[in-house]
Every structure is written in structure tokens, then in C-alpha cells.
Amino acid sequence: MGPPVVHRPAGLTSAEVAERVARGEVNDVPVRSSRSTTDIVRANVFTRFNAIIGVLWVIMLFVAPIQDSLFGFVIIANTGIGIIQELRAKKTLDGLAVIGEAKPTVRRDGVAAELSTSEIVLGDLIELGPGDKVVVDGEVAEADSLEIDESLLTGEADPVVKKPGDRMMSGSFVVAGGGAFTATKVGREAYAAQLAEEASRFTLVHSELRTGISTILKYVTWMMVPTAIGLVISQLVVKDNNFKDAVARTVGGIVPMIPEGLVLLTSVAFAIGVVRLGRKQCLVQELPAIEGLARVDVVCLDKTGTLTEGGMDVTELRPLNGADETYVRKVLGALGESDPRPNASLQAIIDAYPDTVEWRCTEALPFSSARKYSGAAFSEGDGENSTWLLGAPDVLLPAGDPALTEIDHLNEQGLRVLLLARTVHELDSPEVATGARPTALVVLEQRLRPDAADTLSYFAEQNVATKVISGDNAVSVGAVAGKLDMPGAANTVDARTLPADREEMAKVLDENAVFGRVTPQQKRDMVAALQSHGHTVAMTGDGVNDVLALKDADIGVSMGSGSEATRAVAQIVLLNNSFATLPSVVAEGRRVIGNITRVATLFLTKTVYSVLLAVLVVCSQVEYPFLPRHLTLLSTLTIGVPAFFLALAPNKERAKPNFVRRVMRYAIPGGVIAGAATFATYLLARHHYTGPDALAAETSAATLTLFLVSMWVLAIIARPYTWWRLTLVAAMGGAFLLVLVVPWLQDFFALKLVGVTMPWTAVAIAAAGAALLEFAWRWVDRRFPA
Fold it and tell me: What is the full DSSP assignment across 138-180?
């Protein structure tokens, strides 16, 4: 028999709900999962570079043949690809967000049902249990030892006990007990309060890649403006050649300075990452979180739900101090009945010991991870009254109690032990646990996750440290980790002995791998301590007690079946609840970052040599060697097409910091060598060729040198070689050869090698440039290690 029956409010009737919907008093909060279609199109179309290139394209359409306007079509293709990929990612995200969405339980017409958050109306009665998030503002209607954590709103970590009539704030969540509340503010009103909170607490994941690319683009713009002005003046004023040709060559000099594909590739790589992870039932709530995961070097795991499956089984009941086993079974059955929302260990007890007796629960104290025990007071039906506690033996018993030795042996086998104790104090007394009389030990066995061992070994291979942080007994957690062959499982630490000083704590954390009896506040301190030692920390969790730590970690990973509160603050939600998905998430992050770093070097080498060529042309007062069509051909073959394949290739290296520095230390020497070699060929060709077609022949020789040096940059960046990378480089070289030998392509691209001496000189200069590149690349590696 359960707690006394109390009259429960029935909630709104269907008619009242319909009336409120008609009045618009609905909780229509915008979906947070991703950008709208309009935003995506706008972000891809209206970019600084599209504006510059658009203007140049329009000019070219008027003054030159269509071949010189090809660069404009590349922009249209780029923008289109960007939009399509982001829309695919949005579709994946929105689909997953619906699966992962919190569904509060709402009571209407006396019946409780799960509804989507957007269906709640003003005045609805919303039921709450441990881990539920308060989705709208309201007022408590029923409270059964209801404890609310408002730390995300107030920063105050201690739970607040709520009584009927108290105010509820959206964004807080239940840590213990249960109840129901009436919605007093919905939609924009509650959301306004929420938005202010979100602004103060949801920092977008810091993306070094995004900020790095913006920094680079800022510098590029500063370099472009003066160089472009100089080029325009020198081509139009100094040279008295044909006006249209001068305009075409000026544009030919400005266009390649713009690394237009770099921004596109970054968003495409992120978007494809999201779609790939979506297929694995992994919801990425913020795009750059993929990047954060690639940089992670410490993963903090909770044992329950990560290494072990949620359910447990009672394997043994050991009565203590001569207690009668039949009576103990009655107590356990009644305790199971006393909690309307049992956790996993209590559920195992309910399954093992059904409630049969005429006991009446007069008062209950729900389990909380801060206390580490729960309790209930009963009237036993024969006039006897008793009060019981069930929880962690090492918390309920004084140190040195003989029962603890027995418990240690059980913990060493990885079993979970709960102590049933009888207390003489009132449940609401602060001393309720002192002097409690041990009555029985309940031994529970946890089910290990079949995939946990492989996941742990993956992290060990990848040099990612794993730390198990659990509220359970340290020895028992260590035994579970040991069964899974986790490195360092033997070094277990009881978190109650951890130093409070951050520096000292960080040292202990670095040296050990398994921590037990950790309080929610300590989890948060541990994350901060690890970060203070320069670690990038990912934290996985599914319980309410993980929220603070998840929020503070660099990347919070929540299980889909976890509480709403954890799902709301995590950047990544594993909807299939499988910890085994994590390696593929980390691998995806590494693939995206490693590849973008490579590809960025290709794009910026082009920017550097374009700016250098323009400066050299302005200083030496000669015609600009290239028409836009030449550079369109070059950048398509040496950058555009290969970059696309390289950006999506497998890549396992851990992402390293200092993106800008790591890209520029290769791009600057590469660009300078390519620019200098090309200009040297061009000057030699100017002395070599004479006559009306001299400029075309000079351009062709310079193009050959630039192509060969750029191909060498590509060949270096494509390392280490695999069959497909070699094929990619060879195919690009073959395509250029085709243009040089097929007559109509020669005409189309205005590329015709004249004579024998100059083309071979161009090849020789390119070979010298390539050798210099190899040397420079190695020297940079030694001199400026990233």
C-alpha cells in the first residue's frame, strides 16, 4: 500500500485548452536547433567576397570574352554548394532535435500525457520528477519533497525546497522529489526571462577555426585594397595598351587575392560532419562543437549509463546484527513503494521485493546525489512506527565500523552495496543519519555495457586521457573500470579526500583515473582544475548531478535518455544513448579540423603569390602577366577541385591550437616562392619574345611555371600519400597537359607555348622553386614548430 491518497487537481479541460489556444496563450517558443533557411541563404550569398567578386564579374562581362568571366560561375557554384550542404545539415539537425526534444508531462482532464513544449498553454498543470526541466514559468501546485536546482539561473548550487504556492522559474530543474506546477507565463513572456538567462549563460562554443579564418580574411582585405588600387593605376595609366585588355588584366590580378573557397569549405566540412554524425544518431546542438571535440585530450565519464547500463539486479541480501530477513524484505518492499519516481538502484529493489504488507508511508525523503541516501517513515499497521534510511554505507556509517570491511570486499568485486539502516531521528532533522542502526546490506550488480571496453581502448590509443568520475564508492567504480581494462583503473581516489585547492586538485587528477563519492559541486571543480592545467575537457553525463559540470566543460556530451536539464546544456546529445558513438564523434571532429587546416594552406598560398605578383608588377611598371581565365584554370586545378576532396578525406591527427600561425607559416614561404619563380620566368620571357604576340607567349610561359610550383605545393599538402591522393594530384597535372595540347582548349584559355627554349626554362625555374619549397617547408617545421 502506498502513501495516503490526496485529492489531485485535474488540470485544464479540453474546452479550456481550446479557448486558450484561440486566444494565442500558447508556449510558441522558436526551435533552437538551427538557423532558418532564409538565414542560411543570406549568410552564403551576402558575403564580403561575393560582393567584391560580383562587381568585378559584372565589369568583365562587359569588357572581355566569356572565358575571362569563368571565375564568376565558380562563385555561383560555391554559393550553391554551401547553401545545399547547410540545408542538408539543417534538415538532419531539425529531425534529430524533434527526437531529442524534452516532452513535459501535462495533466489535462485528470489524465497525464507527454506533450511537446510548444503545446503547453497558460494555466496548464505540469507534472515534475527528478531530472525534469522546468520549461515555463509557473507556481507550485503540488510538492512531494520537491527540490529544485536554480544554479543555471542564480549561480547558487544548493537545491531549493519548494512548497505549494512558490514560484517556479523556467530553466531550473528538479534534483529530488516530485510535484506539479501551474504555468503562469508561456511563450515570449517566459522566453524573455529565459533569453536573458541564455545570453548570460549559453556561450557559443568558441571556434578557433572560425575566429582564425576571420582574422586571416581581415588581413587579406587590408593587403588587397592598396595592392588593387596600385594595380588599377599601373595598368590603366602607365601602360598605353588597349583599355579593355588593361581592365581584364587588372581584374585578373585582383580576383586570385580573394580566398573565396576557404569560407565555403569550412561551412561545407562542418555541415557534412553534422550530417554524418546525424546518421549515427548524434545531435550536434552547435556546429563548432565538432571542432571542440577534435581538440579534446581528457574525457570525464560518469560510470552509470556510460560504462554500465542503466538497469541493475539485486544479487544478495545480507541481514546485519541478527535482523530477520522476512522483516527486512517487508521494509525494502515498503521503501520501494514510498518513492513514486525510483532511481535505478531502487527500481532493482522494487523488482526483487514487491510491496505486500499493510504498511503506510507517513513521510518520505527522496534520494539526492548530494546526500547519497533516501528515507521514509512508516506506520507498520500494528501500531508500530519506524523510520528507515537506504543509501551509501560509507556515508551512513561512521569510519571504522566493522560492517565497512565486509562492504569493501564486495566493492572490490565491482558490486554496488546499499545499506538499510533504522534511525531514531525525524526525517527532516539534520542529524537523521547519526546513530542509524545498520539492518541489512543490499548487494546490487551492474550490467556492463558491451561496447564500453572498445571505446576506452580507442581513447587510450588516441592519447585521450579518460577519467571516471562517479558518485558511487571509489573501489567499486575502480573494479568496474578494471573489468573493462581501463588504463589506470587501479588508482582509485575517494573524492572526499580531494584537496580543495585547485592546483593541488589538478595534480591529483592528472595522476589518477578513477574517482568515487564525487559530489555534483566537486564534478564542476574537477572540470575547472583540469582546464587550469591546459586540458580541453569533454564531460559525459545523463543525470541531473552532471549539469553543472557539463555546462562548464569545453564540450558537454549528454545521453538522449538523460534528464532534460542535461540535454539542454550539452553541446552534443547521443540520442541512441550509446557511449560507443563517442569515438566516431571525436574522429569526425578531427577529420574536419585537420583537413581544413591543410586546405587553408592551399588557399592562402594563392593569396600570398597573387599579392606578391601584383606588387612586383606595380613596382616594375609592366603589364600584369595573367588574364582572369588563366588564374581560373590554375586555381581550379591546383586548389578548388583538390581542396574539395582533401577537405572530406579521413584524418585522424589530433587538432592542434594556433590555427592562424600553423597555416601562415607554410602559406607565406610557399606563396613567396611561387610568386618569385613566376615573376622571374615572366621577366626572362619579356626579354626573349618580341613582336605583336609577345605578351601571349610571355603569359603562357609564366602560367606554366606558376602551375608547376602550385602543383608542388599541392603535392606537399597531400602527404602522406594514399592511392587516391596520388591519383588526385596526377589527374590535375593531366588536365593541365590536356589544355596545353588540345588546340581548341589552347585558344579558349589563351595558352600556347611558343618555341622550345622558354618553355624548358620555365620548367627549370619551377623545378628550382619546388626544391626551394621542400627546403623552406622543412626549415619552417624546425624553426617554427606549431
Answer: EEEEEEEEEEEE-HHHH---S-EE--TT-EE-BTBEEEEEEEE
